[in-house]
Structures are given as structure tokens and as C-alpha cells.
């Protein structure tokens, strides 16, 4: 399989990349890791007239902590983030989620920004970023800099909130309090396959063994990563018990209708996501009660 013909541009700066996006608009596509875009092009499901390869825009590849927040350059490879002691020690939910992304070869090339911009609701990083309430910094000549919340970034299935002339330049992850509990769970038929369902959970403690604030994001539950707001609110001020975790997981999936396919119908996936949410809640609660720093 081969893609349709396209022109190729290889900018070496953010400004040059943005200028090319402004010039070509919807006819241009950004190539970073290419782990999603290239297969789509080979199947002729994506047909960009111009491919804008940003791999030489080295200023977009970094991981650093500033004002307690994690700053991830959009070109940072999955493998870089997965191996980072900074990420592991302070945002371990991301480290856990990254271990589920494809295989090592994919993580070596795939980028954090590319995964976010692809906006796949069955992908690990959009769900983890949603649970962590990340912010997405985008830039264009026409609008300047904008900051998108997860609900704005992940607009629909495989549709980000980026305009055609905008480039994702950075992901910002807020700090988490000491002893925050976290967990990422998913189920796939084989490791590296797209998950049939999963959940990312963050539990911030109140200092007395109960939950001060909860975040529950569901993977594969709908056209975007979904926050289970009602279940989160029900956990506030509570100590997580097995019974409460079951109740919260049931509440989390109460109104979802996952799309079924040959690998499992909608009802099966709904039950699977409920189980993944329950397991994630119990694992996050155990870490919170252990007093591990996040």
C-alpha cells in the first residue's frame, strides 16, 4: 500500500512550521512520529496535499519542571517520557499509561503531542491527560497562542480542537499534592493492541485518609476521553472501600454507550470499563493510603 502523492516540507523552527500551516491550511498535515498518520495515508484514509515534517524542530522536544508544573514539548517521544525520572517521580500516572502504548518500536518514534493531536479515545495519553487536567498550548499566526482544556482539545473521535493553521507546541500538566493516589488500567486482547476499555484515576487526599478530590477518566467509553463527574463528586470526603469502589465504578459507566465491534459489543465494553474503573479506584486508593508521593 502506498499513499497518494504529496508535497513534502521540513521546517526547522516553530515559526517556519506555523507559516507552512498558515499557507496550506486544511491541505497540510503535520508529521511528527507518524505512527498514526502514515498508516492512515497508506490506507488512503488521509490524503494531505502537503506533509509538514516537524522532526527537525528540535525546540519542541523537552521535558522540564517549572513552577511545579510538568512542561512537555510536543515533539517529545513516548520513550523519552516513559524513561524520565522526573515524570516517574512526580507524575507516575503518565509513566504507567505510556507503558501500555503500542510496542517499544512505536514508543521510540511516537510523540506525546502527536498522540494528543490525533485525539483517539482508545489511546492511553489522552485519557491520562484528561484525568490529570492537562492544558494544551497551541499557536498560529492568525490567533497567536491559545490554551485548550482536555474537553476542548479532544473535540470528537479523531478530531482535536486544533484549527487547521494551529500547531500544538506544549502540554502542561499541573502538580499533584503529596500522597496523591493514581492508577491506570486497560484491557486489550494482546499487549500493544488498541484497548477495549480502561480507566485513569487520580485521588487527592484530605490528610485524614479520605478523598479530597477525585478524577476518573474513561478510555474507550465514547468519542472522546470521558470524565465521570458524578462518580468523582460521590467520592469527595469518603474513604475508599471495596464497596464504594464498586458503586463509584457503576456510577461512572451509568450513562455511557461504547461503540461495539467484532471484538466486543457495547454492553460487553460497558461492563469491561466498569471493571477497569473499579480496579483503578482500588489501586489508586491503596497508593494514597500508603502515602506515596505523586
Q: Total helix count?
A: 12
SSE order in H/E notation?
A: EHEHEEEHHHHHHEEHEEEEEEEHHH
State the share of residues found in helices, binned by percent. 25-40%
Largest sheet report? 5 strands, antiparallel
Based on secondary structure, the structural category is alpha+beta
Shape: globular
Please name the CATH architecture of the largest domain.
2-Layer Sandwich
SSE topology sketch:
Elements: E1 7-9, H1 14-24, E2 28-31, H2 37-42, E3 50-53, E4 63-66, E5 69-73, H3 78-83, H4 85-90, H5 92-99, H6 104-109, H7 112-118, H8 124-131, E6 135-140, E7 144-148, H9 150-153, E8 154-156, E9 159-160, E10 167-173, E11 181-187, E12 197-205, E13 211-219, E14 226-227, H10 229-235, H11 242-252, H12 266-290
Keywords:
alpha+beta, Uridine Diphospho-n-acetylenolpyruvylglucosamine Reductase, domain 2, Uridine Diphospho-n-acetylenolpyruvylglucosamine Reductase, domain 3, Enolase-like, domain 1, 12 helices, globular
Amino acid at each position: 500500500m502506498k499513499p497518494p502523492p504529496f508535497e513534502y516540507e521540513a521546517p526547522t523552527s516553530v515559526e517556519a512550521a506555523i507559516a507552512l500551516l498558515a499557507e496550506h491550511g486544511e491541505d497540510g498535515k503535520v508529521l511528527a512520529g507518524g505512527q498514526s498518520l502514515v498508516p492512515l495515508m497508506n490506507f488512503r484514509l488521509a490524503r494531505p496535499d502537503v506533509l509538514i515534517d516537524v522532526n527537525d524542530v528540535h525546540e519542541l522536544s523537552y521535558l522540564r519542571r517549572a513552577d511545579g508544573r510538568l512542561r512537555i514539548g510536543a515533539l517529545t517521544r513516548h520513550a523519552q517520557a516513559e524513561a524520565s525520572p522526573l515524570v516517574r517521580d512526580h507524575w507516575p500516572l503518565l509513566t504507567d499509561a505510556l507503558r501500555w502504548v503500542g510496542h517499544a518500536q512505536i514508543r521510540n518514534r511516537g510523540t506525546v503531542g502527536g498522540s494528543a493531536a490525533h485525539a483517539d479515545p482508545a489511546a492511553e495519553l489522552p485519557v491520562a491527560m484528561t484525568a490529570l487536567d492537562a492544558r494544551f498550548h497551541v499557536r498560529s499566526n492568525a490567533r497567536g497562542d491559545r490554551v485548550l482544556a482536555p474537553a476542548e482539545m479532544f473535540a470528537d473521535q479523531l478530531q482535536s480542537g486544533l484549527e487547521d493553521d494551529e500547531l500544538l507546541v506544549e502540554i502542561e500538566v499541573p502538580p499533584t499534592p503529596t500522597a496523591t493516589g493514581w492508577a491506570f488500567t486497560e484491557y486489550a486482547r494482546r499487549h500493544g493492541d488498541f484497548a477495549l476499555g480502561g480507566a485513569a484515576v487520580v485521588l487527592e487526599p484530605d490528610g485524614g485518609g479520605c478523598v479530597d478530590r477525585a478524577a476518573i477518566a474513561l478510555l474507550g467509553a465514547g468519542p472522546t476521553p470521558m470524565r465521570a463527574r458524578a462518580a468523582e463528586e460521590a467520592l469527595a470526603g469518603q474513604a475508599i472501600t471495596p464497596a464504594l469502589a464498586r458503586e463509584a465504578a457503576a456510577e461512572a459507566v451509568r450513562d455511557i454507550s461504547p461503540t461495539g465491534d467484532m471484538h466486543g459489543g457495547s454492553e460487553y465494553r460497558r461492563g469491561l470499563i466498569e471493571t477497569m474503573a473499579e480496579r483503578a479506584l482500588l489501586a489508586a486508593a491503596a497508593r494514597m493510603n500508603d502515602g506515596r508521593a505523586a
